[in-house]
Amino acid sequence: VTLRCHLPQPSAWVRLYQYDNPTYIEQKDKVQDMAEFSLAGIKQADAVRYQCQYQGLAPAGTSEKSDPMELVVTGEDHRYPPPSISLSPEEHVEMGTNVTICCWNIYGDAFFLHKDGHSAPIQRQKLSVGAMDTFTLFGVTPADSGTYRCSYRIAGCCLLFSPLGDNVTLEVIPRTAPPGRSEPPFRSPLLTHEWQCHCIPHPLRWGLCTTKPKTL
């Protein structure tokens, strides 16, 4: 990281301070209009406010310290262990199932759920109690299949995070269809009635009509 102090006039020296610390960090001599200070191997402890001060040549005299500038340290801090992760139900689940992913670590105050192929976390949970948080995937579909990992924000740090932890793999499979109802091997005959009239000779009448059922 490079910090630059811009001067209104040439100076005999320029000093870099941490805010509210009377001891300067570094001094640059004979500066015309700008002094550069490099901070190597940035750590969390370097995330503080900084100020510049200079001694002018003409007119001579020491300036007031500049307005403080805050250095924000972001990224992964590998001094902290990655979180652990678990998946329930494990690995192979049917479509429509609710899946729970648990992440835990004692150093985090917020957990993030990552899915391989996505540049940003897909879910975030602020830790409320204990050292574990859960993420729920409701009614999963094949689009939810993939590899998941957790990270956490380090407690007390706004923008410092743990490395990604171990992974779990979720595979969503189509729901098993219920067995279909089988058709009978043959159809039973259907008995219906159709009334038919048959005329037969009769000695006293032209004809006598009788009826009988007909099977179809």
Automatic annotation (TrEMBL):
Keywords for the protein's UniProt record, in alphabetical order: Disulfide bond, Glycoprotein, Immunoglobulin domain, Repeat, Signal
Keyword check for Repeat: yes
Gene3D superfamilies on file: Immunoglobulins
Species: Gallus gallus
GO BP: any one term: immune response-regulating signaling pathway
Residue ranges crossing the lipid bilayer per the database entry: none
Highest taxon in the source lineage: Eukaryota
Protein name: Ig-like domain-containing protein
The UniProt record lists the keyword Glycoprotein: yes
Signal peptide range: none
InterPro entries attached to this UniProt entry: Ig-like_dom_sf, Ig-like_fold, Ig-like_Receptors_ImmuneReg
